[in-house]
Design a protein that fits this description.
By secondary structure, the protein is of the alpha+beta class. The protein has three domains: 57 residues, Orthogonal Bundle (Arc Repressor Mutant, subunit A); 81 residues, 2-Layer Sandwich (Alpha-Beta Plaits), CATH 3.30.70.980; 71 residues, YebC, transcriptional regulation domain (Alpha-Beta Plaits), CATH 3.30.70.980. Helix content is 39%, strand content 21%. The chain has seven helices and eight strands, in the order H-H-H-E-E-H-E-E-H-E-E-H-E-H-E. The strands form two sheets. Strands 3-1-2-8 form a four-stranded antiparallel β-sheet. Helix 1 packs antiparallel against helix 2 and helix 1 runs parallel beside helix 3. The two termini are 21 Å apart.
Amino acid sequence: MSGHSKWSTIKHKKAKTDAQRGKQFSKVGREIMMAAKLGGEDPLMNPRLRLALQKAKEANMPNDNIKRAIIKGAGSGDESNFEDMLYEAYGPNGVAILIEAMTDNRNRTVSNIKATLVRGGGSMASVGAVSYLFSQKGLLVFEPGVSDEETLMTLALEADAEDVVTNDEGYTEVICSIQQFEAVKKQFDDKSIEYMTARLTRLPATTVSLSEEQTAKMEQFIEKLEEDDDVQDVYTNVEGAA
């Protein structure tokens, strides 16, 4: 089906400075270390590591950095005690926000996130107040012209994808359950059809519309949250936002 995506097309923000790239590499490296620590260094046997390596590829992370992160996580060199955290919040205009973090210090992380929320006109939400609005899904995004829409749809549905949406700009999103994500991704890998991104994400059941000015302010607000070293991903229910 064509038209506006209810899930919002992924916006790829390219790091513009060495400092931004360094921070991006650090976050992806932390994810690789955690994945290797929990599931071992073999991507074939470790789904989380496969996802982390996909993120590294999309970020153009150097191979040496990737290898060091895997070795550190799988070996005895990583003495850190990172854990995954999920924070629920409200942004300006009542926007629902989910914040995925990886931290070795909960108090530091929650304090920093609270401070950023307050400065931007948001607040922390109680457990369950926001998360029920989102579902974990697999998501692949294709640039215009990589393949025709019919082929993308046929391959996706053959692998039991849930939805295929092409927006007005020609970007196609394939949405699937997290259980089918590997099968859907393999379907396109086997046909050598390149995608912009392939990841697990959190998609809102419904979205809210903001004015152009409100959307711009919201994007700045999300960027401030993403600047935190402990924050891995931020999800909102704003229509058209990443």
